[in-house]
Amino acid sequence: MWNLDCDWYSPKSLLSTPTIYDFPGDRFIPNRSLMNLHQANSLLTNITKKIQNPNFNEAYRQKLDDKLNLDSEGKPFRMLVFRGSPKSSQKSIRHIDQMREEDSEALQNNGNQRIRRRLPKKESRVLDAPKIKNDYYTNTMDWGKNNILAVALGTEMYLWNSVTTDVSLLFKATGNNYPTSVSWSEDAKYVATGFVHSQLQVWDAETSKPVRNLQGHSQRISTLAWNNHVLTSGSHDRTIINHDVRARRNEVSGVKAHRAEVCGLKWSKRGNLLASGGNENHIYVWELNKMNSSNFLHCFKDHSAAVKALAWCPYDPAVLASGGGTDDRCIKLWNVQKGTNICSIDTKAQVCGLQWNRHHKEILSGHGFGTSSEHNQLCLWQYPSMTKVGGLDPHTSRVLHLSQSPDGLTVVSAGGDETLRFWDVFGPPVTDTRETSVLDNLLSMKISPIR
C-alpha cells in the first residue's frame, strides 16, 4: 500500500473527486503497468481500412469498433497513461483472446446459417449388383484411390471405373469358394481379397494377376485393412494377422484376443493404432509395436451385439466411432487416449457401416434390420452433437456395406436388394475464400506479435 502526501497529485483538483487511481507513476512519463500494450500495439500496427462486406451489417461493425476503440464505460481508449490518471477500465490482455474467439464463433455461425447442409433427394447413380452376398459379417466392397470400385458378386470380383464407367472382371473363384473381404492398398496398385476357405490373395490391379498368396488363417477371412505395406486380416478363426507383403515370410505379427469372429478392422490415419471388432461384441484397440505380445491398449465391452462398423474420426485422431448389430443398434464414440465412451446414440436399427465426412463435421451410417422405420436406411449425423440431419431409405433390403470416393464427396451403399447406390451426400467442401479472408482480416485487428 502506498502512503502518499497531498502534494503528490497534480492537479490538486483531482483530490476532491472519488476517482480511483493507480500508483506509483510520473505525470510526464507513461506508466507501462497501467497501459494495455497489446491493444495499443494492435491499433498502431494494423491496417485500419474498413472492410465493407454485405454479410456484416452496420450494427456488427459498430460493436467491433467499440470493442477496439472504447473502454467498458464507453470512453475513448488511451494509449498513454500517466501518474494521476484514473485506473483503466479497458478489458485486460487476458480478455483479448476471448474476444477473438467470440467474434470467430459469430462469423462461423453466420456462415453456417448461409450454407445449410441438406441430404440429396435421390441417388446420383444406381448399379445392379446380382448375387451379392447378404452377409452382415463380410466386407466385400472397397473404393480405391484410383477411383475404381472393387465389389464381390457371388464367386466373381469386379472392378468398376467411376471415371470411364468401364467394368472388368478381376477373377472368378472356383468350386464353392467365394470372396468374403476386399481392400485396396493405399497406393491403389493392389487389391487384397480374403476367401471363405481361408485363402488370402493380393492381385495386381493393372495386370489382373495374383502376385501373392498369404498363409496363416484356418477359416474364412471376414475383414481386411492396409497400413502402408502391411496387410491386416481378421478371420472367423478369431485371429488377427499382420502380413508384410514385401517379405518372403509374410506373417510379421498376430494376436488372438477376440472370443468370436473378427468382422471389423480399421487402422488409424497415422497407422499407429488398430481397432478390431468382433462377434462377441467387443472392440479392441491395438498399438502397432505391441501386437506381438497380445497386450491391447483398450477393450471396450459396451456394445451388446457384433461390431462390424468402425471408423476413425478425421478431425480428432483420438476419436473412434463404432456401430453395433441387431441387438445393439447403437453408434458409440470412444476417446482412445482416455479409454472412455464419449456418447452412445440409439439408431433403432442394425449398424452395418460408418463413413466420416471429411469436408463437414458429420458421419454417415448404413443400417440393416430394425424395429422401426429406420431399418435399411442411410442416416447422416452432425458431429460432435450427434444430432440426426436426416435419413435416406431407397434400399428395399439392409445396407450391407458403405465406401467413400477418393475426393470424399460421394458414398456408395451396397444393399441386400442387389443394388449399388451412389450418393453425393458429403459435398461440396467449403471453398468460400472471400469469407475466410474477411474473417482473417477482422481477427487480425486484435492480434499483436507481442504476447
UniProtKB/TrEMBL annotation:
GO terms for cellular component: anaphase-promoting complex. Belongs to the WD repeat CDC20/Fizzy family. The keyword Disulfide bond does not apply. SUPFAM superfamilies: WD40 repeat-like. Keywords: Cell cycle, Cell division, Mitosis, Repeat, WD repeat. This is CDC20/Fizzy WD40 domain-containing protein. Residues 127-423 form the CDC20/Fizzy WD40 domain. It comes from Pisum sativum (Garden pea).
